[in-house]
């Protein structure tokens, strides 16, 4: 499980999933229907629903996928969505319930996170939700309130690797709980060693914790400010989001964006190093305040 969480278990970054369910005419009727039913319960986008077997299909394709070739006897470190598909399946088997219900009952609701949810269109009007990509190849419409990730969409919007929506404030509360080593508002959500163990780099000189990421001081362009301490941990997201927690200075940095609007070809956040430059400003301001 450590290798899976550190993205060094040999799992590919991704595999064909939704691509298997479409053809030149569009969505295959064996996988999709325009009316929700017991046989097609998973909303891919409003008005389009996938088969109840979609999750099992994705799991089977994941299990059958080949591993990356080893280098000097070890699998290379390669970020993999499959890692979190595996973790979701494992968690639900241990918990004996769907992951979204467990998270709502044990984390989001007790923490007062009113916006944090999968499938936000079930709870909020579309006008409250930022649009993402104009999907011209799979769902063939402007996405707004439906998960951007195609594999997560295929299984109904709840993925181990994608699908969660939230406001910056709610995300800050969840991350502040982690920054406070598992406690928030007088309640304990994790036993004390859990956060620190998952947060620390697991190999000497490595940047991977268990699930969490760290900066790379060898690369001045990011993902964290080189002014932040080595203990800073967090994560970035495909759509340009990031969160970084600094336990030494008790600094929490949340950046929500929409890089993929109108399409995923927009690379300006990385091109201009926006997120890391903002992170630099925080630490420069901290240094100026100390003077």
TrEMBL record:
The UniProt keywords, alphabetically, are: Hydrolase
* A GO molecular-function annotation: hydrolase activity
Q: Does Hydrolase appear among the keywords? A: yes
Q: Biased composition, Basic and acidic residues: where in the chain?
A: 210-221
What residue ranges are annotated as transmembrane? none
UniProt xrefs under InterPro entries:
Beta-lactam-related (IPR001466), Beta-lactam/transpept-like (IPR012338), Diverse_Enzym_Activities (IPR050789)
Region annotation (Disordered) maps to 203-231
Q: What is this protein called?
A: Serine hydrolase
Q: Where is the Beta-lactamase-related domain?
A: 1-271
Q: Is Hydrolase included in the keywords of this UniProt record?
A: yes
